[in-house]
Amino acid sequence: MGSSNANKGYDVRDLKLAERGRDRIAWAERDMPVTRMVRERFSKKKPLEGLTVGACLHVTSETAVLMRTLKAGGARVFLCASNPMSTQDDTAAALVKYERIPTFAIRGEDSKVYYRHLRAVLDQAPVVTFDDGADLVSMIHKDYRDLMPQVRASMEETTTGVIRLKAMAKDGVLGIPVVAVNDADTKHLFDNRYGTGQSTLDGILRATNVLLAGRTVVVAGYGWCGKGVASRARGLGANVIVTEVNAIRALEAAMDGFSVRPMREAAKVGDIFISVTGDKDVITREHFRLMKDGAILCNSGHFDVEVDVRGLEKMAKHAKRGIRDSVDGYQLADGRWIYLLGGGRLVNLTAAEGHPSAVMDMSFATQALTAEWVSAKRLRLPAQVHKVPVEVEEQVASLKLASMGIRIDRLSPEQKRYLNSWQEGT
Ligand code: NAI
User: Fold this and answer.
1) Is 213 exposed, middle or buried, given 0-12, 13-18 or 19+ CB atoms closer than 10 A?
2) Fewer CB near the terminus (10 Å): N or C of the chain?
3) Which pLDDT belongs to residue 357?
C-alpha cells in the first residue's frame, strides 16, 4: 500500500488532498497560540539549525503545527505515524506538498507498511527524535544501534511510552537519553485529563450517537485520562462507575463521588465501557459473558490490548463489521450483541480527531521548547529518562495564561523569603 510514493521520499495517500489538509492545519493553528509564539521565536533564532529531527507521532493537524515549528527552528524534519488508524491523510498530504516535510503515513496502513515508515524516518539518521509510544526508540535499540552515539535525545509524548522507557532504564538497556515530556505538568495535567476526557467522549458520540444522560458508563482506570473521561461523562448526565487496581486512585474516585467497583460487578450493569489504564486484558471474556445486550466497548489507552478483542472474536458466533463507521458488532451464542468501537484502538483518534488543538498547544509547545533545550550545543545528557526543565513548564504555562487573557498575582520579596525560610513560624 502507498509504496508508489515511497521512493519519492515520502509516502502519503494522495497529494490531491493537500489543500483540504492545509485548511485543517490553519484551523488547528488558530487555537495554538503558544506554539505559534514559539515558532515566531524559532524562525528568528534558529535554535535547531542543521539538526535532523525524526518524529513518530499521530499525524494530525496539531502535529503538523509542531512539525512546522521545528522546521522554522532550522531542523530537517521527517515524520511517520505512531498509530496506523489516527493519520489524517489530508494533513499528511499538506505536509508534503506545502511544507516540504517528508511524511510517511497512510490511514489504515498495515503493520508491514507501518514499520517500513518508521525505518524510512530512521534511515535519515535523526539526532533528535519524538515518539508517542516509544516505537522509534525501540527500533533504534533493535535495528539502528549505530545511531545511538549521535542521538542527543528522544522526546516521549505518552504515559505508556514513558513506562516502557523507564523499564529499559531499570534493566540497564537504555542506550540514549530520553525526555519524559508526558510527565511534565504542562502535558499530562491538561492533555491527558481535559484532552482525553473530551475527545474520548467525542469519539464515542461520533461513532454511536448514543445519549449518555441516564446511561451507566464504566471507566477502567482513574489516572489522568480516566479522571477526565469520568468527569466529562458525568457532565453529560451519565452514572459513572470507576474500576481501579490502585487503592489510592480508587479512593480518590470514591471521594470525587463516583461509584467504585470491580470490573466483574460493573460488567453486569454498564451500558458503555471505556478503558484508559495503559494495562492489558482489562475487559475480557469473563466480563463479556456478564454484559447486557447492546453493551458498547471502547478503549482510549495507548495500545489496543486493554479490551480482549481476539477473545471477543473467538467467543462471538457472528460478527458484523462496519455497522456504522468505527462500530463492529459481535453476537454471542445466546443472541446478545456487544459492540466494539474503533477495533479496540484509541477511540478518540479512530472515531474522532484526537485532542482539541487548544490542549495540544501546551503539549507541543512543551515538546518544541524541550527540543530546543536538548539541542543546546553544550548540553550532553546521559542515557537516562530525564524530566522536562521546570523553566520550560513555567514558560508554557505563562504564555498559555497570557493567550487566554488571564493575569495572576506575583510573590512579593517578603513572601518569597517567608516561603523559603524555616525560621518564621506562628
Ligand atoms: P495513569 O498511569 O495516570 O493511569 C492509569 C490508571 O489505570 C492507574 O491509576 C492504574 O492504577 C489503573 N489501572 C492499571 N491497570 C488497571 C486495571 N487492570 N483495571 C483498572 N485500572 C487499572 O495513566 P494515564 O496518563 O491516565 O494514561 C492511561 C493510558 O492512556 C496510557 O496508555 C496512556 O499512554 C494513554 N493516553 C491516551 C491518550 C489518548 O489520546 N487516548 C492521551 C494520553 C495518554
Assistant:
1) exposed
2) C
3) 96
Backbone angles phi, psi at 425, to 5 degrees: -125, -145
CA 304 to centroid of ligand 1, rounded, Å: 12
Determine which residue's CA is closest to atom 1 belonging to ligand 1.
223
Continuous segment of H or E residues that includes residue 272: strand 272-275
pLDDT attached to residue 1:
47
Ligand 1 centroid, distance to 301 Cα (angstroms)? 6
* Verdict on whether the full-model pTM lies above 0.85: yes
Nearest CA to ligand 1 atom 19: 244
Mapping DSSP to helix (H, G, I), strand (E, B) and coil, where does residue 119 land?
helix
| Nearest CA residue ID for atom 40, ligand 1 | 196
Distance in Å, CA 176 to ligand 1 centroid: 25
Q: How far apart are CA 125 and CA 345, in angstroms?
A: 30
Q: Per 3-state DSSP, what percentage of the chain is helix, strand, and coil (rounded to 5)?
A: 50, 15, 35
The set of cell numbers assigned to 174 is: 537504555
Which segments of the chain have a pLDDT < 50?
A: 1-3
Q: How far apart are CA 208 and CA 341, in angstroms?
A: 9
